[in-house]
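Incident log, support desk, overnight shift.

02:14 A customer reports that sequence design results differ from what the structure should imply. Their input is reproduced verbatim below. On-call engineer (initials T.W.) acknowledged and began investigating.
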């Protein structure tokens, strides 16, 4: 056997063994800061193993039974586990579309089979390529889930929207590296999260991740604004979680056009979500000392929330979808 090939194959096997050990340590760890550190180490180790495996593929045309797919601590599902109806992930650079559904006339949810060496932190976004168009979308799914889920608004005349309107199961999409710092800071016991429509994405990822890990001691105050009630793409899930975990989640969906026919029967909060923040903070007694605030969605909402919370001393993380 080629000595270089043998040496690299042994190195890949060692990296994979170390990655398995990191995965177990990550699963057993209860310290949030250490979990984050282990995930970072695993991401680097995963990249190292992936490069070795790619080199082996180029040399002998196959990875072979000695070289299993790469996994890491942010992917808690075992290698053989798949989500019902999900196709297996393909490569680190892309994946196969496994589900597409319409939420409202201009809103869709689609899922992509997750590459096995794709690591991310709840709340991050990734650049998605469909055809020759690339756009950044926040990831809805949590790091333990075997798929990447996206909730996207379709813009009339938009190039990416045109591609997404034609998206179907079996299509391939490209995936960039995950980015973004809209992540959960566990040093605050309360987390005030304000979103408009698809701005809910990173907060669902954080919440799913938090509940999956079995953590406690934090409370999510999730305020979700939309024009119409059918634009709350995850209302059923979030209302169910709030009912099951009232000590962890308070969910406040609101519609800004309560008198229109499309909102007939609506019994929840009314008004633009940013106009409800001051009253909610006052009513719940949230303070800058115990609460970290987040806002994700269109820039007008971000500006309005900033003008309310920053003068009160709140630390605010934002992400604009404009």
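02:41 Re-run completed on a clean worker. Output:
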């Amino acid at each position: 056997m080629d000595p270089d090939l043998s040496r690299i194959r042994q190195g890949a096997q060692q990296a994979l063994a170390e990655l398995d050990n990191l995965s177990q340590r990550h699963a057993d760890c209860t310290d949030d800061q250490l979990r984050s550190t282990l995930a970072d180490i695993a991401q680097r180790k995963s990249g190292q193993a992936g490069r070795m495996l790619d080199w082996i593929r180029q040399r002998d045309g196959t990875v072979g039974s000695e070289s299993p797919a790469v996994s890491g601590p942010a992917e808690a599902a075992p290698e053989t586990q798949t989500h019902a109806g999900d196709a297996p992930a393909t490569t680190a650079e892309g994946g196969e579309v496994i589900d597409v559904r319409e939420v409202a006339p201009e809103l869709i949810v689609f899922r992509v089979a997750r590459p096995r060496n794709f690591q991310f932190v709840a709340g991050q976004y990734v650049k998605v390529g469909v055809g020759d168009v690339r756009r950044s979308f926040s990831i809805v799914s949590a790091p333990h889930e075997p798929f990447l889920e996206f909730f996207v608004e379709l813009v009339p005349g938009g190039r990416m929207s045109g591609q997404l309107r034609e998206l179907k199961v079996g299509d391939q999409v490209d995936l960039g590296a995950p980015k973004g710092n809209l992540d959960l800071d566990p040093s605050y016991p309360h987390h005030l999260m304000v979103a408009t429509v698809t701005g809910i994405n990173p907060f669902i990822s954080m919440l799913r991740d938090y509940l999956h890990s079995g953590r406690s001691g934090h409370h999510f105050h999730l305020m979700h604004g939309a024009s119409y009630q059918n634009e709350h793409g995850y209302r059923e899930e979030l209302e169910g979680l709030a009912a099951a975990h009232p000590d962890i989640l308070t969910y406040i969906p609101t519609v800004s056009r309560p008198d229109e026919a499309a909102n007939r029967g609506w019994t929840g909060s009314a008004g633009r979500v940013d106009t409800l923040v001051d009253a909610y903070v006052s009513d719940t007694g949230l303070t800058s000392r115990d609460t970290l605030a987040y806002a994700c969605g269109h820039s007008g909402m971000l500006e309005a929330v900033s003008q309310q919370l920053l003068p009160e001393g709140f630390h605010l993380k934002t992400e604009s979808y404009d």
